[in-house]
Amino acid sequence: MARAKSTGSVRARKTTSGNATRAVIAKPSSGIARSLTECAYAEIRNRVMTLAFRPGEFLNESVICAAIGIGRTPVHEALHRLQIEGLVQIVPRKGVLIRTDSLNDVIALIETRMLVEPSGMALAAQRAKSHHLTTLQAILKQARRAINDDNRASYMALDLKFHDEIVSATDNAVLADVIRMLHQRASRIWNLQVWTSADLRVTQIEHEEIFAALKSGDPDAASAAARAHLTSLRRRILQGV
């Protein structure tokens, strides 16, 4: 009898009798499974944030799988992660609800950021290295270009990069996880219809002030700049609704 060949997905194994071999389908490696889950998470989250999956809409997992081209298990795991972040709600026997952020939700999110981010900015001012400052300066330059091009989508992505680089500068993994989660949840704010080109310019000025405080290594100024930025954001949202 010819010996069974092993492949990437099938391996030969003898039965307990020792007289025969049978093929056993190998499970995907944990690394591949994690990679697919991360891809599913990124794809679904992007569609939620850009409103391709509309707030208040009910979807089932099979529709989501077909939309993003990824299998059910990674999608299922990604949806549970997004539920923890508050972006979706898994409703038994009904499907997946794309959560709608009410004005109260948005304000509560900003209030939570107000409790955390000023301290994070102060820590970043004390710990930021030259490469962090160089990266932040480059991001601000790209952001000015996005404003001139009236490209809100590009500015939204750069806003996340700006804050993410500051988070990295804190050199505190626990704080970084908390702030990143808040920013990921808050990024849907950019899709509110209240924003104008003037709002982007105001945000840019406030980011420049945060950067100046970080560059000077002044924790008090960095904390105050973060607080001013969030206070301004809250006021502009309330004025626009």
What keywords describe this structure?
2 domains; two-stranded antiparallel sheet; 241 residues; 3-stranded antiparallel beta sheet; disordered N terminus; globular; single chain; mainly alpha; Four Helix Bundle (Hemerythrin (Met), subunit A); Arc Repressor Mutant, subunit A; 8% strand
Number of domain modules? 2
Strand percentage, roughly?
5-15%
CATH homologous superfamily annotation of the largest domain = GntR ligand-binding domain-like
Sheet with most strands: 3 strands, antiparallel
Helical amount = 55-70%
The name CATH uses for the topology of the largest domain is: Four Helix Bundle (Hemerythrin (Met), subunit A)
Based on CA inertia axes, which overall geometry fits?
Answer: globular
CATH A-level architecture of the largest domain: Up-down Bundle
Q: Could you name the ranges where pLDDT drops below 50 across 5 or more consecutive residues?
A: 1-28
Biggest sheet, spatial arrangement of strands: 3-5-4
CATH top level of the largest domain is: Mainly Alpha
Summarize the entry for a quick read:
The protein has 241 residues and is mainly alpha-helical. The chain has nine helices and five strands; from the N terminus they run ββαβααββαααααα. It has a three-stranded antiparallel β-sheet. The chain has a two-stranded antiparallel ribbon with strand order 1-2.
